[in-house]
Design brief:
alpha/beta, Collagenase (Catalytic Domain), 5 strands, globular
Protein backbone atom coordinates (compact mmCIF):
# COMPACT_ATOMS: atom_id res chain seq x y z
CA UNK A 1 0.00 0.00 0.00
CA UNK A 2 2.95 2.31 -0.62
CA UNK A 3 1.82 5.51 -2.27
CA UNK A 4 3.98 8.66 -2.34
CA UNK A 5 5.32 8.21 -5.84
CA UNK A 6 8.32 10.53 -5.66
CA UNK A 7 9.45 13.09 -3.16
CA UNK A 8 12.12 15.59 -4.07
CA UNK A 9 13.87 16.89 -0.97
CA UNK A 10 16.04 19.91 -1.72
CA UNK A 11 18.60 20.27 1.09
CA UNK A 12 20.68 23.42 1.47
CA UNK A 13 23.35 23.74 4.17
CA UNK A 14 23.54 27.42 5.15
CA UNK A 15 25.77 27.02 8.24
CA UNK A 16 29.38 26.14 9.06
CA UNK A 17 29.02 25.60 12.82
CA UNK A 18 28.35 21.84 12.79
CA UNK A 19 29.90 19.50 10.24
CA UNK A 20 27.23 17.58 8.34
CA UNK A 21 27.98 13.88 8.88
CA UNK A 22 28.10 11.56 5.88
CA UNK A 23 24.69 10.11 5.20
CA UNK A 24 22.72 12.83 7.01
CA UNK A 25 21.10 14.08 3.81
CA UNK A 26 19.97 10.52 3.07
CA UNK A 27 18.45 10.28 6.57
CA UNK A 28 16.47 13.49 5.96
CA UNK A 29 15.23 12.22 2.59
CA UNK A 30 14.32 8.81 4.05
CA UNK A 31 12.31 10.39 6.87
CA UNK A 32 10.48 12.78 4.53
CA UNK A 33 9.56 9.87 2.25
CA UNK A 34 8.50 7.67 5.18
CA UNK A 35 6.05 10.36 6.37
CA UNK A 36 4.43 10.51 2.94
CA UNK A 37 4.17 6.70 2.76
CA UNK A 38 2.65 6.51 6.26
CA UNK A 39 0.15 9.22 5.36
CA UNK A 40 -0.64 7.53 2.02
CA UNK A 41 0.14 10.80 0.26
CA UNK A 42 -0.84 10.62 -3.40
CA UNK A 43 1.28 12.07 -6.16
CA UNK A 44 4.76 13.53 -6.36
CA UNK A 45 5.87 15.98 -3.69
CA UNK A 46 8.60 18.54 -3.18
CA UNK A 47 10.01 19.94 0.06
CA UNK A 48 12.86 22.36 0.78
CA UNK A 49 15.08 21.78 3.83
CA UNK A 50 17.49 24.47 5.03
CA UNK A 51 20.17 23.56 7.56
CA UNK A 52 21.12 26.60 9.64
CA UNK A 53 22.83 27.57 12.89
CA UNK A 54 21.23 28.90 16.08
CA UNK A 55 21.64 32.55 15.14
CA UNK A 56 19.98 32.03 11.74
CA UNK A 57 17.02 30.11 13.17
CA UNK A 58 16.65 32.66 15.98
CA UNK A 59 16.30 35.42 13.36
CA UNK A 60 13.75 33.40 11.35
CA UNK A 61 11.84 32.52 14.53
CA UNK A 62 11.69 36.21 15.47
CA UNK A 63 10.67 37.31 11.98
CA UNK A 64 7.82 34.81 11.66
CA UNK A 65 6.75 34.08 15.25
CA UNK A 66 8.04 37.10 17.22
CA UNK A 67 10.02 34.71 19.42
CA UNK A 68 13.59 35.95 19.93
CA UNK A 69 15.09 32.55 20.75
CA UNK A 70 16.72 29.79 18.73
CA UNK A 71 14.57 26.70 18.23
CA UNK A 72 15.34 23.27 16.78
CA UNK A 73 13.07 23.25 13.74
CA UNK A 74 10.58 25.49 11.94
CA UNK A 75 7.96 24.46 9.40
CA UNK A 76 6.47 26.65 6.71
CA UNK A 77 3.62 24.79 5.00
CA UNK A 78 2.58 25.89 1.52
CA UNK A 79 -0.61 23.85 1.44
CA UNK A 80 -3.81 23.94 3.41
CA UNK A 81 -6.41 21.18 3.97
CA UNK A 82 -4.66 18.86 1.53
CA UNK A 83 -4.49 21.45 -1.28
CA UNK A 84 -1.01 22.37 -2.49
CA UNK A 85 0.56 24.56 -5.11
CA UNK A 86 2.02 22.51 -7.93
CA UNK A 87 5.46 23.02 -9.44
CA UNK A 88 4.60 23.72 -13.10
CA UNK A 89 7.87 22.15 -14.30
CA UNK A 90 7.53 18.84 -12.45
CA UNK A 91 3.86 18.53 -11.50
CA UNK A 92 4.93 17.85 -7.90
CA UNK A 93 2.91 19.21 -4.99
CA UNK A 94 5.01 21.79 -3.13
CA UNK A 95 4.63 20.98 0.56
CA UNK A 96 6.70 23.80 2.03
CA UNK A 97 9.92 24.58 3.81
CA UNK A 98 11.68 22.99 6.77
CA UNK A 99 14.42 24.85 8.66
CA UNK A 100 16.63 22.77 10.98
CA UNK A 101 19.19 24.21 13.39
CA UNK A 102 22.18 21.85 13.32
CA UNK A 103 23.48 23.48 16.52
CA UNK A 104 20.24 22.74 18.37
CA UNK A 105 20.07 19.23 16.85
CA UNK A 106 23.61 18.50 18.10
CA UNK A 107 22.76 19.85 21.59
CA UNK A 108 19.58 17.77 21.76
CA UNK A 109 21.24 14.60 20.46
CA UNK A 110 23.77 14.91 23.26
CA UNK A 111 21.11 15.68 25.90
CA UNK A 112 18.87 12.76 24.84
CA UNK A 113 21.92 10.49 24.36
CA UNK A 114 21.17 9.41 20.83
CA UNK A 115 22.82 9.99 17.47
CA UNK A 116 22.77 13.25 15.54
CA UNK A 117 21.24 11.26 12.67
CA UNK A 118 18.29 10.22 14.84
CA UNK A 119 17.77 13.76 16.11
CA UNK A 120 17.85 15.33 12.65
CA UNK A 121 15.65 12.51 11.32
CA UNK A 122 13.17 13.18 14.11
CA UNK A 123 13.16 16.93 13.41
CA UNK A 124 12.60 16.32 9.68
CA UNK A 125 9.77 13.87 10.48
CA UNK A 126 8.16 16.25 12.98
CA UNK A 127 8.34 19.12 10.51
CA UNK A 128 6.98 17.03 7.60
CA UNK A 129 3.92 16.21 9.70
CA UNK A 130 3.43 19.95 10.26
CA UNK A 131 3.66 20.50 6.49
CA UNK A 132 0.82 17.97 6.10
CA UNK A 133 -1.34 19.83 8.61
CA UNK A 134 -0.61 18.14 11.95
CA UNK A 135 -0.34 20.32 15.02
CA UNK A 136 0.64 19.69 18.63
CA UNK A 137 0.59 23.22 20.04
CA UNK A 138 -2.67 22.78 21.94
CA UNK A 139 -1.62 19.41 23.35
CA UNK A 140 -4.26 16.76 23.91
CA UNK A 141 -5.12 14.03 21.43
CA UNK A 142 -3.60 15.89 18.45
CA UNK A 143 -0.21 15.97 20.19
CA UNK A 144 -0.50 12.26 21.09
CA UNK A 145 -1.46 11.32 17.50
CA UNK A 146 1.44 13.33 16.12
CA UNK A 147 3.91 11.68 18.53
CA UNK A 148 2.67 8.20 17.58
CA UNK A 149 3.09 8.99 13.88
CA UNK A 150 6.60 10.35 14.52
CA UNK A 151 7.68 7.10 16.17
CA UNK A 152 6.08 4.99 13.41
CA UNK A 153 7.99 7.00 10.79
CA UNK A 154 11.26 6.80 12.72
CA UNK A 155 10.92 3.01 12.94
CA UNK A 156 10.07 2.78 9.23
CA UNK A 157 13.10 4.95 8.44
CA UNK A 158 15.38 2.64 10.46
CA UNK A 159 15.82 5.05 13.39
CA UNK A 160 13.70 3.53 16.18
CA UNK A 161 13.78 4.86 19.69
CA UNK A 162 16.25 2.99 21.84
CA UNK A 163 16.65 2.63 25.57
CA UNK A 164 18.89 5.71 25.77
CA UNK A 165 16.40 8.06 24.09
CA UNK A 166 14.79 9.42 27.26
CA UNK A 167 17.24 11.14 29.61
CA UNK A 168 17.46 9.53 33.02
CA UNK A 169 15.78 11.42 35.80
CA UNK A 170 17.72 12.23 38.87
Amino acid sequence: MEKAEKVKVNIINKQKTVKIPTGLRLVIRRCCHAVLVLEEFEGDAEVDVSIVDNEQIRAINFEHRQLDVPTDVLSFPLGENGTYDVNPETGAKMLGDIVISMEKAAEQAERFEHSLQREVGYLATHSMLHLLGYDHVNGGIEAVRMREKEEAVMTRAGLPRDATYVPEEG
